[in-house]
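Our consortium's second objective concerns turning raw sequence data into structural hypotheses that experimental partners can test. To show how far this objective has progressed, the report includes one record in full. It was chosen at random from the queue rather than selected for favorable results. The single chain below, 185 residues long, was entered without modification.
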Amino acid sequence: MKLNTFLPAIALSVSALTIVSTAAVAQAQDMRSARADNTRATDTLKARVPLAQDRIAEGRRSGKLTRPRAEQLKRQVSQLQASMTRLNRTQGFVSAAELASYNRTLDAVDVELDRRGVARSYGNDALPSAEMIAFQKVDARLRYRDARFEYDAQNCALYQGKARDGRIQHERLLSESGRPFCNRR
């Protein structure tokens, strides 16, 4: 008789414990996700700081910024960087609100530099690929007419050109380490 009254109480306690532990797991996953998002946002902001500093220096060199204004902008960016570093050391992270404030500051610097005609850097997108460097080396050596990239049956990069005798010639392009440039299908 007493067992019948305890069973529902035990079942209710176990179900409540399961709900609480499930909620705790979900909350921990949300916190990990938020921490990862915050880390990505912080890293993005850290990458923007040297770009802004380079643009300010370029604006000064090109004469599009006066020395006093360039100094003001450099001081603003340096203070932002120092504040971000200090917060990261003391708190272990930079909050979303602080990141938003820092991003607004860098956006304002970018807008001013854009308005004054200071060019933006687009990274290394204009650098030749390893395949292109290999192609240029082979082309400098062979000097075939109508030279171009081709791919063989294994999907490896080739130099193709017309030799002096009029025949189409192929040569596999190799990396600095001597490996062919092949794409997996």
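The partners drew two points from this record. The longest strand covers residues 145-151. The mean pLDDT is 82. Both points have been shared with the crystallography group to help prioritize constructs.
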